[in-house]
Amino acid sequence: MKKIKYIDFLIYLLIVNTENLEKLEKILSITGERNLLLNLIKYGRRGFDNSIEFIDFLTEAIETNPIVKEKLLEQLNPIFCNIYMQKFMTDLGIFSDDKLVTLFFRQIWNNLLPQISDDQTLLSLSNEVLYSKANHNFVKIIPVDRWFKFYEALFNTDIIICNKEYVKKQIREGALILIDRIVGGAVDAEIFKMSYIKNIEDTPFQKLAKSLIGVLQNHEFIDAQKIKSLENEVKNCQIYLDNILNQKEKKGISLRITIKITRIRQQLERISVLLNALYLLDSKTLAYAMADITKNWINFYSPKSNVTNSFQSTLYIVTFLITWHNRQTGKKYITSTPKEYLKMFYSAAGGGSLVAILCFIKTQMGMGDHTPFGQAALYSFNYSWGFVTIYLMHWTLATKQPAMTAATLAHILNQDEKSSNDYKEFGLFFSRLFRSQFISFIGNVLAAFIVGILIYYFLSYFTTIEIINNHKASGFKDEVVNLDIKIFWFGAIAGVFLFLSGLVSGITENHTKYHNIPQRLYNHPVIKKFVKEKKRKKLVQWYENKIGGIAGNVFLGCCLGCAFLIGNFLGIPFDIRHITFSAGNYALALCHFNFDISWQNLAVGFIGIFGIGISNFLVSFSLSLWVAMKSVNVPTKEISKILYSAFKLFLKRPMSFFIPIK
């Protein structure tokens, strides 16, 4: 019985194989060379479970059926006998511009409208055949040993569709084009000024170019020793680029230079692939060389993944730049001892007191007759000078902390190996961070509320000005007492602006370092003429230390001041709410109504105010932490372990999250 079933299975395989051969012969009889490749891939995807089964069938058909082999060679020969490869080798999957936005839109454009034309180029052919993601995925999983068997069956001494010397010539020309671009990029003024080598001729790129050009132009035979020597020189070039990037903390770095360095890295990697192809063509059989070349070169046509990986590496550099300043600043916002904790409260009280003054000024501006743009300008100025003053006076605005402390937390997470004890330490650190934020909230809210009351009664007693009208007072009181859901949405919007202000601080700090602005100011001819050296040094040092924070605070002030314009223009609920300003406004509103409010509603109002603070904090901290973790290449999953460790600590010692107990 089993024997009969086995025979039936063999008959079934024979029938299926015969049908496949008939379909294959039909495809090979269709005219139009490029259509052949598309039809073969389409046939393989539909008729076989995977591409490995398909290429095995194709190899067997070539080996056992002379007609199939003859027709396949007849169709493939016009495609590959004189195909131009340089643009495919030198451009595909490599950055072509210094601007990230231009690169992004060019990639979208190339995806929508690929470079396909009726010419004899490998780039055009690959775009036509592999444009479909399904086609590309189908072909790229074929392993190199299957390609070897395929080429071994296809090539013979009589007809070879691949002219070995012609392919080597194309690869040599592509490598020469790349080395010329690499050397040109390496001597770029922006890159070379950060080099530790002061003589251009001593850079590893010049040495690589000299060695490589000699080998390629003289058509030297590339053996294992020569390929190893050239690969070492390529590695020296990569180390040189790493040393430039490692100076980013000290000297800063620009986005453009990171893209330039990424492009040179891509070109060096491509040089390595081409050198390996030449080595195989010189040292191995044609079938073996072409198998390896096909397998590796198909990966050139992965522009989406290449660009994504390059964007990620560039994002790492950029996020590092914009969080470096925040990490340094964030350390002072995390308290450990009772003395530091009390100092943080006083610092927050100072910030809250000034915010109460800002609330009064903003209320007066809001009651005036201004155009929307004029009102936004006044609000922005009011916020900006207040935030800058708080910063320069070393006071604390609680919602400015998350962008800084998140960067500090992310850098502490940046360890190669972490034990359970490490996570306990992270949990303790998180508890210190949480209670520092908590006491800042308390200091800001209490001071803003109390000083707001004092301002109201002082001005009411000594002046006759209208401090706040009924409409505004009702709005300030009702939105927190009624827990209007919009205020938490507005608090989240403010959290986004707080996050962005942290980025602006980091970007400004990096820009100052990279462009060497302090030294340029110190040595400016006009400033030297009027300011003495000692004073000039102090001013320059002050500028270097403060400009990042000032820029971030001015940016935040403009965002908060202009937010309502977006809501008015788009007709959507878009505005901001900030915990400290809400406390100051609440105080003014209650004073206006002579505290005609029940103690329950009074308490609910404070719940609403702290709810706004939580919205401010969660959004700002989450976004800042994500960016900071990107900057140190820490997986986002690590944060769950931190939170779990912190949660266990909270269950064990909840008060340590609010006061500095031992």
From TrEMBL:
Cellular localisation: Membrane
Family annotation (Pfam families): SpecificRecomb (PF10136)
Cellular compartments per GO CC: membrane
Membrane topology type: Multi-pass membrane protein
Transmembrane region(s): 307-324, 345-365, 377-397, 438-459, 487-507, 547-570, 602-628
Superkingdom to which the source organism belongs: Bacteria
Record keywords: Membrane, Transmembrane, Transmembrane helix
Protein name in UniProt: Site-specific recombinase Gcr
